[in-house]
Specification:
The chain is α+β, with helices and mostly antiparallel strands and 82 residues long. It has helices spanning 3-13, 36-39, 63-67, 71-80; strands at 24-31, 45-52, 58-62.
């Protein structure tokens, strides 16, 4: 599944576990790990923060899992700053 499709699907299909409202805002965040990736400021860990439009409750999703990326895709993202 493509990046845009994952984000749109999360926003459109989200149902808040707290207030049961539907619809959300999606923000992406990339993070560095430990060791050499932290030293070189490589951020291979990518997450989507999905916030309810009604109450603001936020859930975190691992984009690597949702997009079905392998390590080669992550490496290419790092190289080409995608």
């Amino acid at each position: 599944m493509s990046k845009a499709n994952v984000e749109k699907l999360l926003a459109d299909e989200f149902v808040c576990s707290h207030c049961k409202s539907s619809g959300a805002h999606v923000e992406k965040l990339s993070m560095a790990g430990t060791g050499i990736s932290r030293f070189l400021e490589i951020q291979p860990y990518r997450y989507a923060f999905v916030s309810c439009h009604h109450c603001g409750f936020t859930e975190v999703f691992n984009l690597k899992i949702l997009e079905g990326k392998d390590d080669l895709g992550t490496f290419l993202d790092i190289l080409f700053a995608n």
